[in-house]
Amino acid sequence: MAQQTVMTAYYRSGDGAVVRLQDSSLIPKALSDTNGLLWVDLLLSPNDDGALLRDVFQFHPLAIEDCLSPVIDPAKIDDYGDYVFIVVQALGQFQPERELEPIEVDFFLGPNYVVSCHQQPLASFENLQKRCERDELVLKHGADWFLHALLDALVDEFLPVMDAMDEALDELEEGLLRQPDTLYLQKIMLLRRNTLRLRRAISPQRDIMNRMSRGEFPRLIREEAAIYYRDIYDHLVRVEYLVEALRDLADGALNTYLSAMSNRLNEVIKWLTVVATPLLLVTFVASIYGMNLTPGFWPPSDSRWGFGLIVGLMVALGVGVLAYFRSRRWI
Q1: Which of the residue ranges 134-138, 182-186, 193-197 would you say has the lowest mean pLDDT?
Q2: How many beta carbons lie within 10 A of that of residue 176, not counting itself?
Q3: Could you tell me if residue 1 is inside a domain?
C-alpha cells in the first residue's frame, strides 16, 4: 500500500480559539482570516503531486518542485513577494555506525500562515503539535514568531547529535590507546564525514537566520520578531564552532591512530631484529664450517672437540649480541 500524505493543521481564529482542521477544504476560510494564524504541516508521500500547495495556497511551481523532490537541497531562502520560501536541513537520530542523514524541511511564511513540508517524520514537530493542543498561547503570536518556534525546535536537535558524536569520539580515543585496530580507522573516518555533513548543513542555515534577523523581509518578519531569529543565528554560530572543534578532535584521533600503528610496527620490527641478528651470526658461522674443510684447518674436521667448540662459539656470539642490545636499552 502506497504511503499517503499526512496533513496536520492548526488554526487560531481572530478571537483566540484554536482548532485542529481535519479537512483541507477548511483551509481557504482560515486563510481569509487576516487576524488569525494557520499552521499546516505536511508529511509528504513520494507520490504526492502537490495539489494542496498548488491549488489552495497557489505557491510557485519551483518552490513546490523543491518540496516534492527526493533530493536533499541545500538551505536557502527565496522571496516571492506575498510569502517567503525557506529550505533548511534537520538531523535524524545519530547512530555511530551510520552516516548522518539530513532531512530537508521546507517552509512557506505568509502574513497569517506557516506551511511546513518534509518527507520524514520529525519528533520536534510532533512535540510542537502536542503543545498546540494543550496550550493556546503557542499560536497566540503572529506567523513570523511561530516560524521562529519551528526553526528553533529544529536547531535545538543539533546539540544532542553533537554530544553523541563527542561521546563516540571519546570512546574511540580510549580504544585506540588500549589496542589500535583497523576497525577504529573506519569509525574515525565515518565521524569525520559526519562532521563535514554537519558543517554543510549548518553554514547556509546560519546565513539564512542572519538575513531574517536583519530586516530583509519587513513585510513578513516584524522588527520585534527579528531578535528571535538573531537568537537562532547565535545558536548556529555556537554549534558551528563545536563542529569545527569536533572535526579537530577527529583529526587528532586519526593522528593518534596513525602514531599508534607506527609505534606498533616499530615494536614488531624491533623484536624481529632482536631475533634475526643472533640467528644471522650463527648462520654465518655455520655456513663457514659447513664447507668441505681440509684436516689442517682449525679446528680440524676430524677432531673430537671441534663440533663442541663451534657450537659454543655460536652460543657466545648470540649471547654477546643480545647483551649489546641490552646495554644500549634496545630491549
Answers
A1: 134-138
A2: 21
A3: no
